[in-house]
Amino acid sequence: MAIVVDKSIPEFEALATGDIKVSNTSHLGQMVVLFFYPKDNTPSCTSESLEFREKHKDFAKAGAVVFGVSRDNMTSHNAFKEKLELPYELIADTEEKMCHMFGVVKNKIMYGRKVKGIERSTFLIGPDGVLRNEWRGIKVAGHVAEVLKAVKALKKANAASAESDSE
Questions:
Q1: How far is 63 from 85, CA to CA, in rounded Å?
Q2: What is the pLDDT of residues 25-82, one digit of tens each?
Q3: Cβ atoms within 10 Å, residue 87
Q4: What residues have CB less than 8 Å from 123, skipping those under 6 apart?
Q5: What is the chain's mean pLDDT, rounded?
Q6: 41 φψ region: left (φ > 0), alpha (ψ -120 to 50), beta (else)
Q7: What are the DSSP calls for 99-136, one per residue?
Q8: Which residues contact 47 (CB under 8 A, 6 or more apart)?
Q9: Active-site residue set
Q10: Distance between CA atoms of 74 and 90, rounded to whole angstroms?
Q11: Over the Cα atoms of the chain, what is R_g?
Q12: With contact defined as beta carbons under 8 Å apart, do 37 and 49 qualify?
């Protein structure tokens, strides 16, 4: 089942570093940022992970929990997380279930050969479990700031909506 902006995220369950189970319902009441990246310990993926690390407190202050997602196994994720001192968890999607659900598995040409790879993409899920924004095929530079801006805007919109509901 494909995901669609302004629709609920389909059912899923995955394991993240820190022995945390993540599902479509595990973080209801919080915004969730899922950033999909191709591979641990590669230059662009390291840069993106570090940018999310640098802004982690800002995401938390805005009410969002951040997860990185790749096809790497838990051993690789644990080493990558420790090496970069990442304050957020990494989801090991070794069977590509989440990657396919979010539509980030793409055919690429690498060194003249066709390969199946992950398109760098980020998804913002609202506290209600509804997909609120998506960024596909992104470039690392400036991306994390753009996602944080969207998180803050969603927080503000949710606060305004809650205020009008209580009147």
A1: 21
A2: 999 999 999 999 999 999 999 999 999 999 999 999 999 999 999 999 999 999 999 9
A3: 14
A4: 3, 33, 34, 35, 36, 102, 131, 133, 134, 135
A5: 93
A6: left
A7: HHHTT-EEEEEETTEEEEEEPPEEEEE-TTSBEEEEEE
A8: 140
A9: 45
A10: 8
A11: 16
A12: yes
- Token duo for residue 38: 């191709």
CB atoms within 10 A of CB 24: 17
Alpha carbons 51 and 97: distance in angstroms, whole number:
26
Note whether 134 and 125 are within 8 A (CB). no
% residues pLDDT > 90 (the chain):
83
Rounded-to-integer distance, Cα 67 and Cα 91, Å? 7
Q: How far apart are CA 159 and CA 156, in angstroms?
A: 5
Give the whole-angstrom CA distance, residue 61 versus residue 45.
Answer: 24
How many Cβ atoms are within 10 Å of 125's Cβ, its own excluded? Answer: 25
Q: Rounded to 5 degrees, what are φ and ψ at 15?
A: -110, 135
31 neighbors 127 (Cβ within 8 angstroms): yes
> 33 - beta bridge partners?
66, 124
